[in-house]
Amino acid sequence: MSESGAQVATPAGATPSAGTLLRAARQAQGLHIAALAASIKVSQRKLELLEADRLSELPDATFARALAQTICRSLKIDPTPVLAALPAAPGYRLDAVDGGIKAPFRDRPGQHEPARFSALTSPAVWVTSLIAAAAMLVVLMPTEWAASIQAAISGPPPAPPVASTPAVAAIEPALVASPVEVAVTQTDPASAAISAASNAVVVELAASAASGVQTVADAIPAAATGPLQLKASAQTWVEVVDGQSKVLLSRLLLSGETVVLDGSAPFRLKIGNAAGTEVAFRGQVIDLASSTRDNVARLELK
């Protein structure tokens, strides 16, 4: 509704409505409805609904009465006739008491008298009761029960530490026996040679177990065949790769150690100590001088 809208005339002798009273007071002061809405900080739409008496479109009767009273205060007019023309706001009232002054008083709805035993259902009460009961149970518990519960909580005692085993495994007594214990009963030369070889192997195994440097597998060299033979007269590091890119050897050779390798030619060799290494290929000793630089030999054998 705008300020220029048509106004409904009030019949003669009829009581003017609240909206009519407010609109007349505002127009008498020459105040635009938008200016009034801005001064009381209310939307212009709500003022138009109130002046048009369309109270059903406002939130409720309480809001309508409060808005009308605010407008009257802003226009400095008496709010009594305006509020009298508005519907009363709903509220509570005391019920009539017919039983005299000694009749029980009934409070307004929403009040709730606590039950007699409501304090017993409070969490603070029953939690405290549970704690007290648990403490009493612990105090009165037999000693045997307490000991068994503590043992169950702590668990079995820890196992004693196991002594660490030595790095080098012990050799069976039969393997480290003295050469004297190996009886030689044969009289023919072949049997005597076999017995002497066995004694030498046993002596070598015993020395390896005592020093902890070599293992039983290293003490008994396996028979090997192949076109490539490496012999170290001093410690040297050797790497050998065959034609299929398979690494045949990559480790440190000790002084006096001989290695025979078999694989697919060509063989690619890298020798860290060329002066202390002898290489034989297919029965022929290879001269490493032409392939050596700073005592490191790199060569390929086909």
Task: List its traits.
9 helices; alpha+beta; four-stranded antiparallel β-sheet; 9 strands; 14% strand; elongated; five-stranded antiparallel β-sheet; 34% helix; 434 Repressor (Amino-terminal Domain); 302 residues
The geometry reads as: elongated
First-residue to last-residue Cα separation: 111 Å
Helix content, binned percent? 25-40%
User: How much of the polypeptide forms β-strand, as a percent range?
Assistant: 5-15%
Tell me about the largest β-sheet: 5 strands, antiparallel
Uncertain residue ranges: 4-8, 92-99, 165-187, 213-222
Q: Structural class per helix/strand content?
A: alpha+beta
Spatial ordering of strands, largest sheet: 3-2-5-9-8
Q: How many strand elements?
A: 9
Secondary-structure element order, N to C = HHHHHHHHHEEEEEEEEE
Overall pLDDT score: 74
Number of helices: 9
**Rg:** 58 Å
